[in-house]
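Researcher: I'd like a structural prediction for the single chain below. Treat it as a standalone chain; there are no partners to consider.
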Amino acid sequence: MAEAAHPLPLAKALTARTQQLCVGLEQGIADLYDLVTPVTAELLRWWFGDEACQARGVNFHTGQRQAILNAIVAHEVLGCTDLAHLYREVCPGALLEDDRLIEVSRPHHAHPKYCLKMATGTGKTWVLQALIVWQLLNRSAAQDEGRDDPRFTRRFLLVAPGLIVYERLLDAFLGKQREDGQRDFACADLAVHADLFLPPACREQVHQFVRGNTCSKAEIGLKATGNGLIAITNWHLLSDAGEEEEELESEEAVLTPVVAPAADIVARRVLPVAPGRATGNALDMLDRRWARGNVLAYLAGLPDLMVFNDEAHHIHEIRKAGEASEVEWQKSLLRLAEGKGRRFVQVDFSATPYNDLGTAKRKSKAWFPHIIVDFDLKAAMRLGLVKSLVLDKRKAITDALPLEFKAERDADGNVALSDGQKIMLRAGLQKLRRLEADFAKVDPERKPKMMVVCEDTTITPLVADLWKRKACSRTMC
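Model: Treating it as a single chain, here is the predicted structure.
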C-alpha cells in the first residue's frame, strides 16, 4: 500500500535541510555559518549561541527558532526567486503530486513567498521583528559596501487583520501611547528586549531606523522617512481600495448623467473619484478613497518591498464549487508586486493556513503551498507556550442535589446568585487552588486561570463581589 503524501511537504523538507545545516549552531561551528553573510552569521551567534543565550533571561523558543532559521535558509542560502524555485531546491518530488506544479506556477506565487504556520499566542511578532532586523542590517551593510543584493531590503509593509492587532503592532514597534498622544519607545519590543534582538554594536542604528521610519496607516506615503520604511496598516486599507472601485462603478451605472457622455468620460479620467448620491457627496468619503489610491500607488512605486501578513488565512483565495477567486487583499498585493520580481517578498503568518473544501463529512483542508515551517498547537502546548482549556464538569454534584444554576430574581427584578451557582463557584475555587499548587512545583512563574461564564452581564458584578468577600474572609457564604 502506497504511503500517503505528507500534507506539508515543503515545511517538512526545508526543516530537515535546515536542521542538518544547523548542527553545531549553538557552538558556532554549524555549516550554516559558511553559507550566510557575515552580518547574518553575527546575528545567528547572538540569537542562538550558547554564550549569548546563557547571559540573558529571555530567548527565542523552539518554534520561533525554527521559523527564523527556515526563513533564512530559504531566502538567503537557497536564494529562491519564486515558490516553484523553492520547491525545486528543497522537495522537487512534491511538484509531481496532485496539481502542485500548476498551483505553484500561478502568477501570485511568482516571487519569494513564505508562510510560517505558528499556533496563536506563540510569539509571531518576535519572529517578524527578528526577520526585519536580519533584512535591515544586511541591506545596510550591502549599501555601505556599494553592493546591490536583491535578497535584502529596508522597506517593509506590515498588514494586520484588524484594528486590535494593528494597535498591538504599533505598540510593539513604537511603544505604548502616552497621555500626550506620543509613543514611548522605551516600551517597544526592540528596546525592552534589546539583549535578545540586537548585538550591542548595532542597537542604536536599528533603534534610530525604527523610530524614524515607522508609519501608521494614516502616514503611509505622507510621512518623510529616511532610506527605508516600516509601514503598518490593517488589511482594510488594501481590501477596501478594490471594493470601493467596484462600488463606485455600480453607483455610477445607476446615476442619470448630468453632462454629455463624452465630457463625462473625460472628467472621469481627470478626477480620481466622483461624488455620488449614495454617499451624499461626502468629502470625507472622497478623501478616504483618494488616500487609499495614493497609498497603493506609493507602495507599488517602491523599488523593493517585504510584506508581512499577520493572520494571513483571512486574505488568500476563496474557493467555491472547486474554483478559486482572489480576495481584494491578494489583488492589491499582486499590484504591489508588479515589476519588482524577486525584490517583492511576501511572508505570511497564520495558525490555520488552509482553505476548507467540501461540506459536512466530505470536508477537507487545502493547505497553502508556501508553508515553510509547522509549529502547531500540540507542539506549543507541550512546551507550555499556550493555555490549555479544560472544561470541568461536576456531574456528581448536579445529580445529588436538585440545584438551580441560574441567578435568582425577585418580583422587583433584583438579581442574586443562586445556591447552585455558589456551590459551583466554590468547587471551581478549590480546583484552582489545587492547580496552583501543582503549577508551583513545575514553574512558580506560571499560574492557572479559571474562566466563569455568566448568563448575562448583570451576574458578573455578583461573581466579582463574591470573589472579593472570599479573598477577605477565606470562607464561602
